[in-house]
Structure formats: structure tokens, C-alpha cells
Amino acid sequence: MASLSSLTFSLNAIQWINVLSDPSDPDSPGLWRFADPTFVAEYPDVLAQIRNAGFDTTMMEVLDTQTLQSYARMIADAGLRVSPGYAQVPVGSAHGGRLEKGTFERAHWFDGVRRKAEESTYMGLSRIFLAAEVDYAAPRWEHPAVGYDFDQDRLDEQLELLDEAVDVLNAEGVRPGLHNHVGTLVETQQEYEYVLENIDASRLGAAFDIGHLEWAGIDARAVLEKWGDRVQDLHIKDIDLDVARRTREEGLSYEKATNLGLYREPGLGDLDLVGILGALPDGFDGTVLIEVDRASMDPGESATYTAGWLAEATKS
Ligand SMILES: O=C1C[C@@H](O)[C@H](O)[C@@H](O)C1=O
């Protein structure tokens, strides 16, 4: 069993990123500010707030609107280090048709993954989270956390493309860990286990998301106990288990669940994060990336609150 004080924690900037378009209207559409071309001007201040809250590490996220060099300078200027980033792999059938091997389109399908490999090696990282695509137009975004519309052929298509992405990353010395994510094609226990069982452990580790497991009704502690020898990094987040249950039983959409307050600062939700992390094997040397996907307070205060929770949780 790992002792919490020996773990390396990092904070994702996500509470500044996944915000309501109209903060006064809880049902207004969510924004994803990493994709907003104007966010680059605000990024240094966000990184400074992460540092000032007491974190020394944040998730690698290079914006499309900046160079690797400018990103590295921003991180250094903020006095931060980076922890493993995140690569996604879409399936062709969700975007016009399956991709034939040897085609121009298939070769370019992995440009985003190659870019992530380049970013990782430039920033001195040798690991990354690898996930199926978050696709806001996919049926699962409207029916999350229940393995909606499962299709074995589509899972095989996803597996084949993830396998190729693993090759792309491995070729650059970057070891991916499979990441489960609600709303994607790797959402349920059956789905992530299928991928892990069909791609060799020498090429692909596991990099679970504790919050997404529990949202899908999966016992995260049991998952860490079962896959402990393969887990290389983690995302943790606290959630409201009642909203999670309602998502599954009443069919709330991903956005509705988020707007209803599914996500919580650590300690303000229902998960026993300390107990769950205690299931990590002794000597675990990965990063535990803390995420507050939607802050319940001002994002800067949320980061400070989270740092306070962490200080308490890791007190030996
Ligand atoms: O891995 C993740 C990436 C984000 O897209 C997402 O909002 C977050 O929940 C997550 O775990």
C-alpha cells in the first residue's frame, strides 16, 4: 500500500477551462477555454495562481495557439513543472467512415498524437494519458456513464486505432497509459479491460480516472487493487454520487450532470479519495493529477481549497 505522503500530485488547470458561458445561468452551455484562441493571454496568470495555491506541478497542455518554446517559457516563468499530458484518438466511423490502412487520411489521423509525443519529449516527459476521443456530438455525451449503444465492431475499431497510437508514442519513447473517460467509447469496465487485455503491458500501461470510474458505477479502489501492477499515473476528482447515480438512472446528459454539480473540490464530494489512493501499490512513482472539472467556487479559491485538502490528506 502506498503512503499518501510519498505520492507526487499535480493540479490540472481545468477549473479555469471548463466554465459556464454565462456564470449567472447554471444551464448555459459550457466552454472549453483550452480551445479558445484568446486564452493564451490569460494562461500565465492561471499558471501563477496554480503556483500561488501551493502546487509545483501542472498537467502539460500546450495550446494550439502557441509554440513549444513559448509554452516552456510560460511554465518556467510560473515556477512550475509539468506532469504527463493527454492524447485522444477518435474513431473514423464517428467522422464520416472507417479509415482504411495505407490511406493518406489514416496516416494523418495520428498527427495529433505525434504532436503530443513531440510536446512530451520536449518537456522532458516519458509518459502520457491515452484516451478515446471526447466527442460532444456522440450519442454517449447525451447518455453518459452507462455504456450506451455498445457495439463490439466499434470497440474493435477503437482498439485498432488506440493500438496504432501506442506505436506512434512508443516510437518516441513515450509510454501511454490507458485512460477511461465517461462519454467516450472507453467508459465501462468491459471496455477498458478489453483494451488493456488486447494491448500488451510492455507497450501500454493503465492511467485511470477515479472520478470517471465511480461516475460509471465502478468501484475505483477495486480497480486499483486489480490493475495495480499496470497503473502508471492517475486522474483523481471528487464527485457527488447522487448526481452520478441520477445520470445513470434518469439519463442526464454529460453537460446536465456537470451543471448540476457532479464535480466537487476534493473533500467536498462523496468519494473516499484517501482510501482509494491507499490501494496503490507500495513504491508507486506515477503522478496523481487532481482535477476539479467544474469549480464550486472561484477557480483560484478552488485551487487554494484543493491545496489545503491535499496538505491535510498527506500529513503523516
Ligand atoms: O481526462 C480528462 C480530460 C478532460 O477532457 C475531462 O474534462 C476530464 O474529466 C478528464 O478526466
Q: What is the H/E order?
A: EHEEHEHEEHHEHHEHEHHEEHHEHEH
Helix content: 40-55%
Binned strand content: 5-15%
Mean pLDDT: 97
**What is the CATH H-level superfamily?**
Divalent-metal-dependent TIM barrel enzymes
Query: What is the top-level CATH class?
Result: Alpha Beta
What is the CA-based Rg, rounded? 18 Å
Number of helices: 14
Q: Please, how many domains?
A: 1
Cofactors, ions, other ligands: ligand LX7YND4F
Biggest β-sheet description: 4 strands, parallel
CATH topology: TIM Barrel
InterPro entries: IolE/XylAMocC-like (IPR050312), Xyl_isomerase-like_sf (IPR036237), Xyl_isomerase-like_TIM-brl (IPR013022)
Protein name: Inosose dehydratase
EC number: 4.2.1.44
Organism: Microbacterium azadirachtae
Descriptors for this entry?
316 residues, alpha/beta, TIM Barrel, four-stranded parallel β-sheet, three-stranded parallel β-sheet, 14 helices, 42% helix, binds ligand LX7YND4F
